[in-house]
Amino acid sequence: MKKLLFILMMIIIFIYLLAYQWFFRYYGDLISYVVNPLVWLGLSLISYLLLYERYTFKYRKTISYIVISSSFIYIITYYALGLVTGYTNNPYLITISGIVINTFSILFVILYKEYLRYVLLMTSNKYNYVYKIFIYLLFFLSDLNILFIIRQLINSVTTFNILGETVIPVLSINLFMMYLCQKGGYIVSSLYRLIIILPSLLIPIMPKVDWIIPALFNVLFPLFTYLVIEYMINKRNKKVPINVVEEFNPKNWILTFIIAIIIIMFGLGSFGVKPSVILTKSMEPSIKPGDLIIIQPININEIKAGDIIQYKTNDYHVVHRVVRVLKDNDSILLVTKGDNNLSIDQLPVKEDQLLGKMKYHIPIIGYPSYLLHQIIGSKVVDIEIGK
Q1: Residue 282: active-site member
Q2: Beta strands 316-328 and 331-337: pairing type?
Q3: What total number of domains does the chain contain?
């Protein structure tokens, strides 16, 4: 009988998710702020009445401590990035009414869903492993706006962004929540999600970073926390060899993570300069293919003849030397030429095309990227070869 109720509960959740996606298109606010919280509350109550059983978790306190610590490291690290990149206004409502609405429609929903996930997951331990997969898919889908994602995936230009910004982090978080529910119960999984999301609902500012930074946080922090939990549990069970205990240090993982974030932010230009690898021979002999240059954003008024600049033309970035600066009323045009080209570039560079001026030049270091470009065989635009 209980197995039938368990299956019926999952079918009901699946039907609701389909209905939610459909009705959200027409009654977005009503569905998000009223219907959705009430439905998840109702499903949680039903699961408590029909499926709930009491379970004990040997390492709940240890896991809770690790989860809380990891969550606070996440928040401190993420908001500290703003000291480098700057801050922007928080898109959430930072008013009393906004906080109340967000508490009901976001925080409570997280609690309801984690409790329901926990009850279904623990019940599924008695049955086939396939049920766990279905539970995972249900809660994964519940965190996504499926129709929006499908529309975005149709556009190949935004496919990578939508996968990296939304789908992969949600996959990672839900996998981690399944693990936490299994190891420590719904209180532990709820703690992680609530601590992570609370600052975004209460703090009026947030770091001004590219989407890839929060996406990486939501992928790497669950992985990092999982590794620490497994290490601590195995250590208490004395399953970890002494040499592994000595080599594994959570502090090293934190340091590695911070260094990785700094490198990624540097690559994205968050520190005011941006690296770029030279892929063609148009600037030889001064700059060769495989060399790395550091580009610093600059006002077009500060550019003079002889400067090496980077500018965009369509979806391609060009690094050439300015040979002449033209001034026409209030506008400035830059005539550019590759040192190795016979003629100047076809069109002068406008202000909205200018990406920056070369600040540093580091030979050879970008050669792996150059080799990858050669293997892929990307077409070189005419302007780079001086046609």
Answers
A1: yes
A2: antiparallel
A3: 2
Respond yes or no: is residue 345 known to be catalytic. Answer: yes
Set 190, 320, 330, 343: catalytic member: 320
Stated pTM of the model: 0.69
Which positions of the chain have pLDDT values less than 50? 156-157, 242, 244-246, 386-387
Identify residue 14 by its one-letter amino acid code.
Answer: F
Domain that holds residue 117: 2-268
Residues 264 and 361 in one domain: no
- Can you tell me the distance from the alpha carbon of 73 to that of 228, in angstroms, rounded to the nearest whole number? 13
Last residue of a domain, one of 250, 268, 286: 268
Q: Are residues 38 and 159 in the same domain?
A: yes
172, 282, 307, 373: the active-site residue = 282
> Hey, is 158 helix, strand or coil?
helix
331 is annotated as an active-site residue = no
Tell me: the pLDDT tens digits for 117-154? 999 999 998 888 889 999 999 999 999 887 777 766 65
Residues 170 and 146 in one domain: yes
Q: Of 172, 270, 291, 345, which is the active-site residue?
A: 345
Together in a domain, 99 and 231 = yes
Alpha-carbon gap, residue 164 to 219, rounded angstroms: 10
If asked whether residues 349 and 253 sit together in one domain, one would say no
